[in-house]
Amino acid sequence: MNLNNSFTLYRYAFGPLDAATYLVSKQGAKKLEHYCQSLHTPIDILMDRSYDHGVPIYGVMPYAATTQFNFDEKDPLFTDVGVRDQKYAPDITTFEKLMVKYHRLCGSVKRHLATIRLNLVKE
């Protein structure tokens, strides 16, 4: 849906997994409140999982907000988000590594199924 000559509204199968701003309806907030009771991942990741909580996600293109990572440790706006020296913490067990892989696999399957469902609805 074209909003004007500069912006277009798109429905996502799941959150865009990058910088975003949020506008949530009261009905959506109630669903998210129930779903997000257990903060087992950061809140923005939980909000992106529309395939689990059922709140539809729309995005405006081009984005109204962008990420500007700053990896200069001397800069007051320094961030280490995304910077990793190793894949796992040194004290993580083999079982915990397997659980991480299992949850990533489940999320990947859910994202693919959500994409297929959204494409079927469009046609």
Characterise this structure.
By secondary structure, the chain is mainly alpha-helical. The protein has one domain. It is built from four helices and two strands. It has a two-stranded antiparallel sheet with strand order 1-2.
Q: Strands of the largest sheet, in order across it?
A: 1-2
How far apart are the first and last residues' alpha carbons, in Å? Answer: 15 Å
Helix content: 25-40%
Strand coverage percent: 5-15%
Compressed to H and E, one letter per element, the order equals EHHHEH
Name the overall outline.
Answer: globular
Helical region count?
A: 4
Report the major sheet: 2 strands, antiparallel
- Multimerization status: single chain
Quickly count the domains: 1
Question: What average pLDDT do the residues reach?
Answer: 84
Radius of gyration, in Å, reads 17 Å
Low-confidence stretches: none
Instruction: Write down how many β-strands occur, each being a DSSP E stretch of 2 or more residues.
Output: 2
Output the structural class: mainly alpha
Q: Summarize this, please?
A:
By secondary structure, the chain is mostly helical.
Provide the fold topology.
Blueprint: E1 8-12, H1 26-35, H2 43-48, H3 50-53, E2 57-61, H4 94-122
Antiparallel strand pairs: 1-2
